[in-house]
Design brief:
Pfam families: Band_7. Belongs to the band 7/mec-2 family. HflK subfamily. The protein is of the alpha+beta class. It is 54% helix and 17% strand. A hairpin with a 5-residue loop joins strand 7 and strand 8. 14% of the residues are buried.
Length: 334
């Protein structure tokens, strides 16, 4: 066995008779073209996914941008294709990081430095925010700037520090969040267009905005006091809105009643005047007749209200037979 091993080690490859492989030549004639054909097909056919676009490079130079679908290119490394997800919404996080993020550029390791900011009134605040963006022009995104993800991150941090630095700490933490988001979005898109990153900024959203940890308890107490103040103001406004309209309604009701009574009295007075003028006109035409008619009408109204009256002669001495007392007693018993 050692002799055979030595013979294998001392083979003279230069004196091998390749004619011994004549039986394999037909096989090699078919195998080599088949291998070349497979390599050709593998290096010339590619697929662009539905949410992406392909950027074709020929010898490292940009040629064209292709849409989704089955595509062909020059094989054997002449053309190279970079797939860019143009329809996928990407995001970057500042001041914090989501675990198990698929995008390595989604958050940074310098989270403490990112969220530490100074407001316009020289107060400190910790600001956490995210930006959501899309790749609008793949050629600019790939070739105009060397590291577009890092560049976008630096621009976003610079813009947010500028916007926060123009406002007070109360505006940053409480009432000015929406305005900050809108201003940051406009300025960030302007800077992205200026640097030709080929990106479209969809949203800038503030997350946790708090004062620094040493002063956070005091700030929470102040904020709680302000909330209680607002609550008391709202309660007082509610009572005001409940009592004042009621009092206004009652006052309006009394005013309308008084106006109605005044109108009634005026109308009655005008009616009396009209009636008196009518009587006066008739009186001037026939005074005696008018006096008699007025007397009769007055007696007709007054006499029924006087009750039962007995009129006798002043010379009469006995009036009992005239009173019919028995009949009155019977009526009283009934």
């Amino acid at each position: 066995m050692s002799f055979e091993r030595d013979n294998r080690r001392n083979i003279d490859w230069g004196n091998i008779d390749w004619g011994r492989f004549e039986d394999f030549r037909p096989f090699l004639v078919w195998v080599v073209p088949a291998i070349l054909l497979v390599i050709f097909a593998y290096t010339s056919i590619y697929t662009v996914q539905a949410e992406s676009q392909g950027v074709v490079l020929r010898f490292g130079k940009y040629v064209k941008t292709v849409d989704p679908g089955l595509r062909f290119k020059f094989p054997f490394g002449v053309d190279r294709v970079s797939i860019v997800p143009v329809k996928r919404q990407l995001k970057q996080e500042f001041g914090f990081g989501t675990a198990d993020a698929s995008d390595p550029m989604q958050f940074s390791s310098e989270q403490v430095e990112e969220r530490s900011m100074v407001t316009g009134d020289l107060n400190a605040a910790t600001v956490e925010w995210i930006i959501q963006y899309r790749i609008r022009e793949p050629r600019l995104f790939l070739f105009e700037v060397r590291d577009p993800g890092d560049t976008l991150r630096d621009i976003s941090e610079s813009v947010m520090r500028t916007v926060v630095g123009d406002r007070t700490v109360d505006e940053v933490i409480t009432v000015g969040r929406q305005e900050i988001e809108a201003d940051a979005l406009a300025q960030l898109q302007e800077q992205v267009n200026k640097y030709q990153l080929g990106l479209s900024i969809d949203q800038v959203q503030l997350k946790n905005v708090n004062p620094p940890l040493p002063v956070q308890p005091s700030f929470n107490e102040v904020n709680q006091a302000q909330q209680e103040r607002e609550k008391m103001i709202n309660v007082a406004n509610g009572e005001y809105n409940k009592v004042v309209p009621r009092a206004s309604g009652e006052a309006e009701q009394k005013i309308q009643a008084a106006e109605g009574y005044a109108l009634q009295r005026v109308n009655e007075a005008e009616g009396d005047v009209s009636r008196f003028n009518a009587v006066l006109t008739e009186f001037l035409k026939a005074p005696e007749v008018t006096k008699r008619r007025i007397y009769i009408e007055t007696m007709r109204e007054v006499v029924p209200k006087l009750g039962k009256k007995i009129i006798i002669d002043e010379d009469a001495s006995q009036i009992l037979p005239l009173l019919q007392l028995s009949t009155e007693n019977q009526r009283g018993q009934r």
